[in-house]
Amino acid sequence: MWPKNAVEAISNAKQLLVVTGAGISAASGIPTFRGEGGLWRNYRFDELATPSAFERDPGLVWTWYQMRRKVCLNATPNPAHHALATLEQRCERFLLATQNVDGLHRRAGSLKRICLHGDILDARCTRCQNIWTLTDEECIADENDPQTLPHCARCGALARPHILWFGETYWPGTIETAFQFASGCDVGLVIGTSGAVGPPAALIEHAARRGAMTVEINPNPSSLSSVVEHLIQTGAVEAMRALISALDT
Ligand code: OAD
After folding, report:
1. Which residues contact 77 (CB under 8 A, 6 or more apart)?
2. Mind listing the pLDDT tens digit of every residue in the chain (249 residues)?
3. Does the pTM exceed 0.90?
4. Active site includes 206?
5. CATH dotted code for 1-28+77-117+170-249
6. Would you call 42 exposed, middle or buried from its count of C-beta atoms within 10 A (0-12, 13-18, 19+)?
7. In the CATH scheme, what is the code of domain 31-74+119-163?
């Protein structure tokens, strides 16, 4: 499944960038966005994941995110998440730039990570920008009563999910740090993303242009499949298991 030169490049990498998307968490039971059963096939992003949607109906938005938060809390990291935590320990310089908000990379032990799109377990104050991890109590809300929605303990203002919504720009220091890292990496590995969101996909294109060897893991072709040097066309769990065992032999 893994070409010998790709395994060697990963084994010898001094600086390894990994970009992940929803596909890596599919085996943990978390729906992707655009594939079969994907969230954006069943829900309208403009009603749930934009600043104006929140302004219009914060209760509806919170209810949707709390439903997703529960799914994430009930899920557990799968062997692909764990394999990335192992890879991090083997490589001198490592960065995981994830688009996922499910917290599974953190729970699998990945430390050197940037959560480009936020974290579904976190809330952010709409006034003072205070960020905190929601408790279960905060999440039991009556969507029709704004007073029961999460509020900031510091300033009392309404809180919102700490998620990067459509139409918003990346938080300072997130995507720039990832691009800086991509400039100097010798291997770029992308797992389980359609590439539909421009900047994270551009990280791999950037790494490839700068001479990094690039590998994609995805059972389906994505917008990055024509950019990468190697396409491992299978699920993340199977591919990462095979990679770790190839690195061990
Ligand atoms: P998508 O739903 O767009 O793409 C998921 C990708 O995972 C597809 O290319 C699938 O082929 C692939 N896939 C499915 N099962 C897989 C498996 N078992 N192993 C590996 N890959 C698999 O999700 P993203 O690319 O992550 O933004 O979407 C990017 C962003 O769009 C998300 O972060 C989200 C969304 O709007 C925010 O919420 C801010």
Report:
1. 28, 104, 105, 107, 108
2. 999 999 999 999 999 999 999 999 999 999 999 988 899 998 999 999 999 999 999 999 999 999 999 999 999 999 999 999 999 999 999 999 999 999 999 999 999 999 999 999 999 999 999 999 999 888 777 777 888 899 999 999 999 999 999 999 999 999 999 999 999 999 999 999 999 999 999 999 999 999 999 999 999 999 999 999 999 999 999 999 999 999 998
3. yes
4. no
5. 3.40.50.1220
6. exposed
7. 3.30.1600.10
Instruction: Tell me which of 20, 30, 34, 227 to substitute to probe ligand 1's pocket, judged by most ligand atoms within 8 Å of the beta carbon.
Output: 34
Pocket of ligand 1 (CB under 6 A): 21-24, 26-27, 32-35, 38, 99, 117, 163-164, 192-194, 196-197, 217-220, 222, 235-236
